[in-house]
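Entry 14. Ran structure prediction on the chain below.
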Amino acid sequence: MTTGNGIRHSIAISSGKGGVGKSTVSVNLAVALARSGARTGLLDADIYGPTIPIMTGVRRMPHTKDGKIVPLEAHGVRLMSLGFLMPDGTPTVWRGPMVAGAIQQFLRDV
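Output, structure tokens:
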């Protein structure tokens, strides 16, 4: 089954608790899939403490093309994270609807 954006398969890594290794599992799984030949993308949906930029060693801002953000790439994985768009250490004080809207925009406009 293919979604409207061409994504055939997706895997969600989640937990209600912080500090349990979600980002570590996500990065390692994405890199392993990419190395096995899969076209792989990783969306860091942690709005309050995005760590994917740090874990992948990518510290630059993505550019846009035709009004869409072009994901950055590292280790064969295409990456998108709020951490790429905000200066280091900038706190995010968003709540429910703003968080949901940001994630939906990442899914739609990246």
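The chain has a mean pLDDT of 85. Will compare against last week's run tomorrow.
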